[in-house]
Design goal:
There is one protein chain. This protein is α+β, with helices and mostly antiparallel strands. The chain contains two helices and two strands. The longest helix has 13 residues, at 15-27. One of its GO terms (cellular component) is nucleus.
Length: 74
């Protein structure tokens, strides 16, 4: 299983290009990822640029990975 790994860009102006790469990797992974391609992973900030007005449906639905780091005060 080989997936293209993408990350949310810092600049909003770069987001359309990243989303296009993500869509292409999902729609036709063997062409855009490689002969053993199976899709893409898109890492993004929760409630960041990627979440603004974009509806992920069907096979584009988001999985969530969370990192909760809490500093404890003694």
């Amino acid at each position: 299983m080989i997936k293209q790994i993408l990350k949310e860009p810092r600049r909003s102006s770069e987001l359309p290009e990243v989303m296009e790469q993500y869509e292409k990797a999902i729609e036709n992974p063997r062409t855009h990822v490689g002969p053993q391609g199976t899709g893409a992973l898109l890492f993004a900030v929760f409630r960041g640029k990627v979440s603004e007005g974009i509806d992920f449906t069907d096979d584009r639905g988001p999985g969530q990975m969370r990192d909760f780091r809490w500093d404890t005060v003694s």
